[in-house]
Design a protein that fits this description.
Elements (H helix, E strand, L loop, with lengths): L1 H14 L10 E8 L17 H13 L7 E4 L3 H13 L4 E3 L8 H7 L3 E6 L4 H9 L14 E8 L2 E8 L2
Parallel strand pairs: 1-4, 2-3, 2-4
Antiparallel strand pairs: 1-5, 5-6
Helix pairs in contact: 2-3
Length: 168
């Protein structure tokens, strides 16, 4: 029930203002931080997801099931890839890699213009990626224990809007 409600809210958010901007190309970005990672070995720089992390990845798949993605991006780490893999498999898409230091560069803008894109990142990159797309400093770094934020950024012509949802 909760997943359906969230999906409905996502569809409503995306439809806001659509009539006024129908002739303008729309780019929509969904940004999430990777799910819960294995913290048992503090020296491991590339841990996999925990069982709870895999459960959250499936939850993201359910929450975002009504969204048809054109691209799914992830950093090249086990935890970010494993977070979006259920969604990529369900939509028969490949996970594409991006470098956080190049986030929303001209290449990325061109590839995602007019598309619906999912991006999996990290606590210290995801909010800033949303800011780069928005062209404003709206979001700060999130706590390392927060795996539940969903940033939705929409660009229609010159207008940019954003919504931040917290999905436990």
């Amino acid at each position: 029930m909760k997943t359906r409600l969230i999906s409905l809210l996502l569809l409503i958010f995306l439809g806001l203002g659509q009539n006024a901007c129908d002739s303008q190309e729309t780019s929509t970005y969904y940004l999430i931080r990777h799910a819960e990672k294995d913290r048992t070995d503090s020296t491991n720089k590339n841990p996999h997801l925990t069982e709870a992390g895999h459960e959250r990845a499936l939850k993201w798949k359910n929450v975002l099931s009504s969204i048809e993605f054109d691209h799914i991006y992830s950093t090249d780490y086990h935890r970010t890839i494993e977070t979006v893999t259920p969604i990529a498999k369900a939509q028969n898409l490949d996970v594409e890699f991006y470098n956080p230091s190049d986030m929303f560069d001209e290449n990325f803008k061109a590839r995602t213009k007019g598309k619906v894109t999912l991006i999996s990142g990290h606590s210290n990159t995801t909010p800033f990626f949303a800011n780069r797309i928005l062209e404003e400093e709206r979001y700060g770094q999130i706590d390392d224990s927060n795996n539940a934020n969903l940033y939705i950024v929409v660009i229609r012509g010159e207008h940019r809007s954003a919504q931040l949802l917290h999905i436990e």
